[in-house]
Write a structure and sequence with these properties.
By secondary structure, this protein is of the alpha/beta class. Helices cover 24% and strands 30% of the residues. It is globular.
Length: 341
């Protein structure tokens, strides 16, 4: 089978690997579609993503969908041909989740994630023609949801988790700073949850056009001179840019809530935080998701259309071009067709 493997910074290869065999509790999935995430781009560009550093070659990809082709011993209920996506997180055997965090499985002390170098040996991802997956990590796609849509369920789940972290959003006016793929999906998730209006802000007209397509009522190009609205009661910071934080905190209303869904750097970075105190802002983190991937699939089944976030599609043989496009300024979500032509 072919797999998309990063060997180091700037070294991406589409290479042949042995076909997987389903072990006990596993299902082999013929992957059809994969979405490129910022972490995939980071491994390719830098040989690392955040604090996770490549020590060995790594198969990329955690936003994937395909069809079951076989099951290992002890697995029932996954008939060949079943369309599935994957919950890419699996807590390690020694992971700790205190009672106070019951149910918040994204906060386990140690979690292996598809396509991650956080642990050694690394956890290969799903950018391959075939992948053996733990049965409990599979999620069946509802009737009418294609595998291409299924590959969007994971990032949509990230957005839906962020919206859930904000509390009640129905009837509220919302500001989303940063209109990359996750920011645009936060726009869609907030509207799906009943937000009265959503304003999206970014430095790129291309990104703002995608936000508009996914339901933003208003868009602001802050690089072009548009100012963030003041006194926004509920704000989502989706850019992950430390330089934006001072302005975003200033835009948050006194007593308002700011949900941080954009990944901030692991290293020290200067930014002005005074408004956090003087405006009594509640600053909430949103990390990956719990079971919102099931909510995302239900929303897709019920007609939520987020296909507008996809700007590019490439075959697996052009995976290098796919990552380059995802890293460029004229793209939003980039998909890779993983199935053999």
């Amino acid at each position: 089978m072919r797999a998309v493997v990063v060997h180091g910074a700037g070294d991406l290869r589409v290479e042949e690997r042995p076909d997987p065999v389903a072990g006990p509790g596993e299902v082999v999935v013929a992957m059809e579609w994969g979405g490129v995430c910022g972490s995939d781009v980071a491994y390719w560009r830098n040989g690392s993503s955040g604090t996770a550093v490549l020590r060995d070659p790594l198969v990329l990809g955690h936003e994937v969908a395909g069809r079951v082709i076989g099951s290992g011993p002890g697995v029932t209920g996954w008939a060949p041909g079943t369309a599935v996506t994957v919950h890419p997180a699996q807590a390690t055997a020694g992971s700790v989740l205190p009672e106070r965090l019951a149910g918040r499985t994204n906060l386990h002390s140690e979690v292996r994630y598809f396509g991650s170098a956080a642990f050694h040996p690394h956890t290969d991802g799903g950018f391959s023609e075939l992948r053996a997956v733990r049965a409990e990590q599979l999620r069946a796609l509802p009737e009418g949801v294609s595998t291409e849509q299924g590959a969007l369920a994971e990032p949509l789940a990230v957005a839906m988790h962020a919206v859930r972290r904000a509390g009640a959003v129905r009837g509220r006016d919302i500001l989303v700073n940063g209109a990359g793929p996750i920011g645009c999906l936060v726009v869609a998730a907030a509207k799906h949850a009943g937000a009265a209006s959503v304003t999206a802000a970014d430095v790129s007209d291309t990104s703002l056009a995608v936000a508009k397509e996914l339901g933003a009522d208003h868009v602001l190009n802050v690089a072009g001179g548009d100012a963030l609205p003041q006194d926004s009661e509920l704000v989502f910071e989706a850019s992950g840019a430390p330089s934006a934080l001072g302005g975003v905190l200033r835009a948050t209303a006194r007593g308002g809530t700011l949900v941080q869904v954009g990944n901030l750097p692991g290293a020290a970075a200067p930014f002005a935080l005074g408004d956090l105190v003087t405006r009594e802002i509640t600053w909430v983190g949103a990390y990956r998701f719990v079971e919102e991937i099931s909510d995302a699939l239900a929303a897709l089944r019920d007609g939520l259309d987020v296909s507008g976030v996809v700007t590019h599609r490439f075959g697996i043989e052009d995976a290098g071009s796919a990552l380059a496009a995802a890293a460029g300024p004229e793209s939003s979500k980039v998909l890779i067709r993983l199935a053999t032509a």
